[in-house]
């Protein structure tokens, strides 16, 4: 009797994506002569990879985030392409460097809560500044958690969120 190998679960596939991404990023860190550890997780149905510093006072990894996260966005896209080259499937992997996205998520949640408060107070829709897709997703999630409605409007790179009453 022959046995079939177990079917690959979504979590196993995401863990594989994380491992491929970690290998790619470790090579990049070596080339750039930067010290960092790679943390791999699965978060909200996505592989989540973070480059963290061994020394909390070392700010050299922040260069990989760049001003306003533009270097991080590019690095994330390159990492997704490296994963796709190995797996043959498009990756939705999320990359963070030195806690940049985590801190940005906290800030954006505050922005969303402030917008919800203004909509409650005035009843009028509130338009926010243009944001990248990650930032808009964070705002949409925070607005929905507050029981309000939000939509993205405009065209990249000037796409922005509008918060409205339900």
Automatic annotation (TrEMBL):
One term of GO molecular function: DNA binding
Keyword terms, alphabetized: DNA-binding
Domain R3H: 102-166
Keyword field contains DNA-binding: yes
Pfam families: R3H
Domain of life: Bacteria
CDD domains linked: KH-II_Jag (cd02414), R3H_jag (cd02644)
PANTHER family the record matches: PROTEIN JAG, RNA-BINDING PROTEIN KHPB
Protein name: Single-stranded DNA-binding protein
Organism: Cellulomonas gelida
């Amino acid at each position: 009797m022959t046995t079939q190998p177990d079917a690959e679960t979504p979590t196993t596939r995401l863990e594989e994506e994380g491992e491929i991404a970690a290998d790619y990023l470790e090579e990049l860190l070596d080339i750039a002569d930067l010290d960092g550890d790679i943390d791999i997780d699965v978060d909200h149905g996505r592989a989540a990879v973070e480059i963290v510093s061994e020394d909390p006072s070392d700010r050299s990894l922040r260069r990989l985030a760049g001003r306003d996260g533009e270097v991080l966005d590019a690095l994330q896209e390159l990492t997704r392409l490296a994963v796709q080259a190995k797996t043959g499937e498009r990756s939705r992997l999320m990359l963070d460097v030195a806690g940049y996205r985590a801190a940005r998520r906290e800030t954006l949640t505050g922005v969303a809560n402030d917008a919800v408060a203004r909509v409650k107070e005035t009843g009028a829709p509130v338009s926010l500044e243009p944001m990248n897709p990650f930032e808009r997703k964070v705002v949409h999630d925070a607005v929905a958690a507050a029981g309000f409605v939000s939509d993205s409007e405009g065209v990249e790179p000037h796409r922005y969120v509008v918060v409205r009453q339900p």
